[in-house]
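FIELD: query
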Amino acid sequence: MDLADEIAYDNHDLDDGLASGLLTEEILAKAELWRTVRREVVRGHPGMRPAVRRHQVIRALINREVTDALEESSRSLQRQRIQTPRQAQQRPEPLLTFSAAMRRQRAPLKQILWDELYHHYRVVRMAHKARRTLTALFEAYVAHPEQLPNTSRARLRAEDPYRVICDYLAGMTDRYAIDEYRKLFLPDAKS
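FIELD: result
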């Protein structure tokens, strides 16, 4: 699951970064893996519109990473002579992984995400806003749990209130959390 999440999150972030303009293909071209996959996509379909090209490059990256992970994981299971799920669970090291070559190829892209996207001032600003919003909601619900919906309030009778409130917050979409914040804290918002 960790490996699948890593592939999905990293590529989703690359796509979002490009779509938002916080990343550019010029920045990503610093990474050999991006250059190689982009070149293959462009060679196969010259004259492609930029949005379609971006989609196809991300798709090709995901395909390359998934293929590598499947092949390396298969080799790992064979090397370790793993025959059953129980044997796999007893191993201290992960058996499902990228090849060493893919880990090296992915490292520059991950570094670009770290440097250029995750630490971009707009992303940092939004992360702090989100933290403040969730903290305010949490504190409001702890102070006045009667503001929670019926299903969450019912859980309060048998479960730890912090856990119930955390679960409720974790189930919120960004939009829903913002709407709840408005309803709880802005006098002119409809509740």
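FIELD: remark
Residues 29 and 36 are 9 Å apart (CA to CA).
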